[in-house]
Amino acid sequence: xxxxxxRHKLRGGCQCGYIRYxxxxxxxxxxxxxxxxxxxxxxxxxxxxxxxxxxxxELQQGELKFWSARADNGSDKQCAFCxxxxxxxxxxxxxxxxxxxxxxxxxKSILQPVAHIWTKRAYEWLGLGNKGVICCTEQPVQFDxxxxxxxxxxxxxxx
Length: 159
Hints:
- An eight-stranded mixed sheet has the order 6-7-8-9-4-3-10-11. It has a three-stranded antiparallel sheet with strand order 1-2-5.
- Helices cover 18% and strands 32% of the residues.
- The model is unreliable at 1-7 (pLDDT under 50).
- By secondary structure, it is an alpha+beta fold.
- The termini are close together.
- A hairpin with a 4-residue loop joins β8 (88-92) and β9 (97-101).
């Protein structure tokens, strides 16, 4: 899959259709987060977090609403969501990188996380520990290993 094909597929929005966006650059990484916040926000066992440079996120339709929350690791984050249906679109701790809620993408078939974080909060029935997937019991101090794993996985797909 070429870079332009990847970008072409990275479009998404909220459940009601009010919010539409696209990603114009390459994602930095994708991981599953099992923290209590992601479990509550997704109303599921985990949330999918795709890191994207903030400048690569283009809101094409609608207007996002924001609220602040404290993450499971204690840091503050801005949460962007649809004011009509409440679908979470992204989280941001700064204005450089956002954590796109990858479940809001139109084509989720391309998603393959390279890591699981906050696995101490994960449900046992998930059976984590696939070969080649990084597992962290809490929030990693540095995401270098996860970023590198994404680059290697993306390189393999492109070649």
